[in-house]
Amino acid sequence: MNPTLVLLQSATMFAMAGAVLALSTYVKLWTGLLSFATVTFGAIGAFGSIWLYNETSLGLFGSIIGAAVASGLFGLLVGRVFLKLSSHWLALATVALVLITRVFVVNLVDYTGGSAGEVVAYTITMPQMAIMLALVCGLLYLLKRSQFGVAADTTREDPAVAAALGVPVARVKIIAFGLSGAIGAVGGAMQASQLSYIDPDTFYINLSVTIIASVVLGGAYHWFGSVIGAAVFTGMPVYISQYITEGQSIINGALLLVIILFLPGGLIDPLRWRRLRERRLRKRQPPDAVDGTRDPAPDPALDQAGATR
Amino acid sequence: MLLLEQLINGICTGAIYALFAVGFGIVFSTMQILNLAQGVYATYGAMITYFVLDESGLPFWLAAILGVIGAGLVAVLVDQVAFEPLRRRGVQLLGAVIASIGMWIALREVLSIATEATPVGFPPGTAPRGQISIGPIDVLQTQVLAVVCAVVVISAVYFLLHRTNVGSAIRAVGFDKRSAQITGISPQAMIIGAAMLSGAVTGLAGILMAGGQSFNFNLGDALLLQGFAAVVIGGMGDVRGSAIGGLFIGVVQTLSASYISASYQDAITFGLVLVVLLWRPTGLLGSADFQRA
Amino acid sequence: MRIDSTPVRPGPRRNRRLVAVALTVLAMTASGCAKDGGAGADGDTVRIGMIVAETGPIAGAGKTFANGARIAAAQVNADDLMDNGKKIELVAKEGSEDPAKSASVAAQLAADKSIVGITCCILSTVAGAAKPIAEKQKVPLMLWGATDVDLADPPYVFRTVTMPQPANEKVSQTVAEQTGIKSVAYGVMTDNSGIVSQAEAFVSGMNDAGVQDLGTVETLSTTTNFTSAATDLIQKDSDAIVVAGTQSNAVGLIAALHDKGYDGQVITGETISGSGVFKSQPDALASVPFPVYFLSDQPANDAAKAFVEAYTKEYGEAPDGYAAQGYNAIYTLAMGLKAAGDDTTRAGLSKALDGMTELKDTIYGDVTFDGGQLNATSAVQIVNYTAPDGDIAAWKPAN
């Protein structure tokens, strides 16, 4: 096969794995929770599925589903335990969770290979990855239109109002964590397959930062944003590093900053689009592309992810 | 005797964490920003000190002051470039976290390039090294320096924030920008002042951390993790809380590594962080007014 | 003293090599584009993929690996070491020593059928990621840095990195014999399997020398302050302390031991070699013995001498151990290609490398291959940094 095609294929597969991980973070953000815990779920998914694949006869998909179920249950537990933490404190608690995860991966040598890491016994092909990503996207598409979607939107906009309207805020948040756990596990298995060799540092702070950056870059208000964000933030560097050898991280950092300053809703921002549409309907001057910066009205949704001010 | 010595080691490490946590807490309590770029200030403090020492014949204390000022200026830069536009738009947690991640990644890479990713250390004969005896106990000069700096600086910050008009103004900005403005305070000046103070204190923590060992462009990342464990334990809104949280983390880490297991040291520390978070979400000493944030 | 264990081998080669080096340097200066080996106009040109780490967290080491490899390619070509005008062309791709990026790059190189072999990998994780790709695509992979046990796996995965384990065993034994230490304690970074395995080699060397083991103090890759570990180690009151850790970890612990006034013998591994390390902690590191396989001040033979001269000329500093590793990876691949004769395909190279049992006159002297792994234990020298300028010199016990 043509080397450029191989590079494209590899970048695409990393982007798909990154997209599933980003979606796992998105589900929590949907209910207004900023969490780094996706990496922990990814670790459970990767190490768990490899262990199941080696030790049982569940096969590739059985192993991944098994790990996803375990991670989903763990997600429910984490969601329940962290329930009363608000905004910043929840974010900090999930960072602590990521740090603790690494300690367990290092020390559970029999299940994870310890600090030596382990070879990923299975390979997920590109079509299989595409199907897995499509399934996760399909799930989120359905959820968006479901009762849960409405409840999640409302919870993010204003938990107090949501509760007053009869939305079971606590349950919505716990379910979001459970879903995030299951989806994160699938993403972790995909990432592992793509790396073919994983160790305790594979699922650590760096990855969680990349994932959150992907979600925000793509847009935190629609699941499709996470997919786009992951494509840009995990797929692109594979390409860019071929041409720019020094200072690539400076570009990444600056890119993040520019996005958050000038496109606060990310690349996929339904709210901004709606505003643009409405303005156009009102026959005003067509606004320019980076109009968001001059918009005096704060993004209500972004605000909500923040604080109970 | 070993216990006593390790306790002292823990307190001395904790003093550095305490300084870092205080710097972290200033940004958080005045601006409600969870700033992941905070560790970078520590690295810049240490690196600027190193470059000054390496390039010029200036004495250590002068180089350290330059490092502290430099770290403060980096903090102001981060604040004005990344946070100010967001503040103007009223964007909260998520935007600021992402902006700080962006600054973190970019500023760290600058240092990586500047040092070619190799470890550096303060040139011999510049920074204090070696031991001095205090009674029957030998302690490192760097440790004494860390404790003295922490006590003096943290007391000064506490005094500044809680006992002076400027401090009241800074805290008032943290409470409510508009009402602060009504009372005739320039919020802009106060925010820049707070950023400067936060960066300077954090930079000092970085310099103290770097003294006596080799370090590279990653120095602040480890401090960031320990530092926020400290603020979670102590509560972010209160200088005293952050300081005690830092000391506590230092002692717990040292004693758990020495007496329980180094392998599980991080699990013990951060497990404790989780327990405290769940038990008292605003920290052990978290003040009631802080719940608002 | 058995420091210079590899005899110098004078011979007809010498002049030829010197001429070659002169030509190489000329060619490099003249063309300026010879950086990646510069294929000649006549004769076969064989393309070798090279995954470099000239950016990223370990760019410091990564640059010297790549530079060493470039010198090797230039010398092989200028000197016609593969005979009949056969030449190497290096195709360098940046992988930043990041597993994900490097895996992508490896896949890309493996897919390019004109690439006959690939060389890469400083970190074992990255090697672990590249290895299955090479095996699946049946392309010979030469690992130049990753030292985790059992990474070499013929017929496709070979490793020319000189392993730290036998070197550590030797440094333990030699120092124990020459200083007469009776007891030893270990400071080991335990969350890195490569380091743990290196520590085991120290232990086995000390046991063989009959030194009493007083126990181990653990450090972690996340440890930021080594005073506490140093306190625990000094408490054991041993004649010697062995420090096993990655570069910053080992230097940190040695500095802390120094500051805490430990006056016994400190011993460590080759992780503390590398540019800038001595300068960062001169007082603590001076006189700490560690093993190296390659020393630019004392080249083992003419090949090493020629390498040092060419490298110094091109890059303005003497090559360190990492540069030697990079050089040797390409040199070994070239010798494999030479042995493969006309069959300069992946299969041919793989077969030739698999059949290789020894190489003479490498920059490490004569080396052997066992299960795809290079062995150069005879080249191990025990050295230490010397104050004030950080030159590396043969270690001698203090009086």
UniProtKB/TrEMBL annotation, chain A:
<protein>
    <submittedName>
        <fullName>Branched-chain amino acid ABC transporter permease</fullName>
    </submittedName>
</protein>
<feature type="transmembrane region" description="Helical">
    <location>
        <begin position="60"/>
        <end position="83"/>
    </location>
</feature>
<keyword id="KW-1003">Cell membrane</keyword>
<feature type="transmembrane region" description="Helical">
    <location>
        <begin position="121"/>
        <end position="143"/>
    </location>
</feature>
<dbReference type="InterPro" id="IPR001851">
    <property type="entry name" value="ABC_transp_permease"/>
</dbReference>
<feature type="transmembrane region" description="Helical">
    <location>
        <begin position="253"/>
        <end position="273"/>
    </location>
</feature>
<feature type="transmembrane region" description="Helical">
    <location>
        <begin position="89"/>
        <end position="109"/>
    </location>
</feature>
<feature type="transmembrane region" description="Helical">
    <location>
        <begin position="32"/>
        <end position="53"/>
    </location>
</feature>
<dbReference type="InterPro" id="IPR043428">
    <property type="entry name" value="LivM-like"/>
</dbReference>
<keyword id="KW-1133">Transmembrane helix</keyword>
<feature type="transmembrane region" description="Helical">
    <location>
        <begin position="204"/>
        <end position="233"/>
    </location>
</feature>
<feature type="region of interest" description="Disordered">
    <location>
        <begin position="283"/>
        <end position="309"/>
    </location>
</feature>
<keyword id="KW-0812">Transmembrane</keyword>
<dbReference type="Pfam" id="PF02653">
    <property type="entry name" value="BPD_transp_2"/>
</dbReference>
<keyword id="KW-0472">Membrane</keyword>
From TrEMBL, chain B:
<feature type="transmembrane region" description="Helical">
    <location>
        <begin position="6"/>
        <end position="26"/>
    </location>
</feature>
<comment type="similarity">
    <text>Belongs to the binding-protein-dependent transport system permease family. LivHM subfamily.</text>
</comment>
<keyword id="KW-1003">Cell membrane</keyword>
<dbReference type="InterPro" id="IPR052157">
    <property type="entry name" value="BCAA_transport_permease"/>
</dbReference>
<feature type="transmembrane region" description="Helical">
    <location>
        <begin position="143"/>
        <end position="161"/>
    </location>
</feature>
<feature type="transmembrane region" description="Helical">
    <location>
        <begin position="90"/>
        <end position="107"/>
    </location>
</feature>
<dbReference type="Pfam" id="PF02653">
    <property type="entry name" value="BPD_transp_2"/>
</dbReference>
<keyword id="KW-0029">Amino-acid transport</keyword>
<keyword id="KW-1133">Transmembrane helix</keyword>
<keyword id="KW-0812">Transmembrane</keyword>
<feature type="transmembrane region" description="Helical">
    <location>
        <begin position="59"/>
        <end position="78"/>
    </location>
</feature>
<feature type="transmembrane region" description="Helical">
    <location>
        <begin position="189"/>
        <end position="211"/>
    </location>
</feature>
<feature type="transmembrane region" description="Helical">
    <location>
        <begin position="268"/>
        <end position="288"/>
    </location>
</feature>
<keyword id="KW-0813">Transport</keyword>
<dbReference type="InterPro" id="IPR001851">
    <property type="entry name" value="ABC_transp_permease"/>
</dbReference>
TrEMBL record, chain C:
<comment type="similarity">
    <text>Belongs to the leucine-binding protein family.</text>
</comment>
<protein>
    <submittedName>
        <fullName>ABC transporter substrate-binding protein</fullName>
    </submittedName>
</protein>
<dbReference type="InterPro" id="IPR028082">
    <property type="entry name" value="Peripla_BP_I"/>
</dbReference>
<keyword id="KW-0732">Signal</keyword>
<dbReference type="InterPro" id="IPR028081">
    <property type="entry name" value="Leu-bd"/>
</dbReference>
<dbReference type="InterPro" id="IPR051010">
    <property type="entry name" value="BCAA_transport"/>
</dbReference>
<dbReference type="Pfam" id="PF13458">
    <property type="entry name" value="Peripla_BP_6"/>
</dbReference>
<feature type="signal peptide">
    <location>
        <begin position="1"/>
        <end position="34"/>
    </location>
</feature>
<feature type="domain" description="Leucine-binding protein">
    <location>
        <begin position="45"/>
        <end position="383"/>
    </location>
</feature>
